Amino acid sequence: MARTIAEIKQEMTDAYVQESAVREKYGLGQNGTIDFSKVSIEGLLFYVVAFGIWVLEKLFDTHREEVSTALAEKTPHTARWYRNKVLEFVPGWAGGAAPVKWCSVDDRGCRLKVKVAAGEAGARTQVTASGGSPVETAVEALENYLEQEKDAGIKIEVVNLAGDVLKANLTVWYDPIAFVPGTVDTALKAYVQNLDFDGLLSRNGIIDALRQVPGVEMVHIDSLQSKAAAATVLHTFLEQERANAGYWTIANGDINITYIRYRSENL
Prior knowledge:
11 strands, 36% helix, 4-stranded mixed beta sheet, 5-stranded mixed beta sheet
């Protein structure tokens, strides 16, 4: 990891004052130190050299990260490798378009759980057979493809579901001078639906996102419930959860907000 410019400059200064000629010139004792002014010739010179060294170390760090990422991407039969294979897969009948736009791979030893979705960020959807072959859907084609690519003994489960449902009841304290009606609903939907695919959704994350809305002073989650799209019963959302489908949907009708004008005594 690259050192800071200050750290590099300090190391240069410490090494410089160890020279006997330098110590004699500046009148330093055996254990004396010196802190050059930022506008002194020595201070400016050391800063320029330290900055150059810092840039070089940052470039080395970036190169190291790029190499590590490239190796992880190309190493065969890792979870990342399977994910890339899924995203690159294009059935012959698909007209050159990859049907899967989002994918996560959960490595469970001899079993891989592969979640997939189509659509764009904020509007993810279940992968469908639209434009597909009359004999197989896109997911069936993907399953056949993975059976050919996988290691022997590995079981693969492809999960292709409509987004999990989320329902929220909130209390929001707002400053009427800065607050614009409807912005909390929009911010909540945007945060939930743009979460990283198969990422963890948390109560704290929701509150933090809504606190960024202009005019919102405080947020309390009165109740938060969720369910898989095909389920019939909602359950109380825990502190954090991962969607069965890998992504969430939240409709306008599933957001209920009680607004209270903010005053300092609310605290």
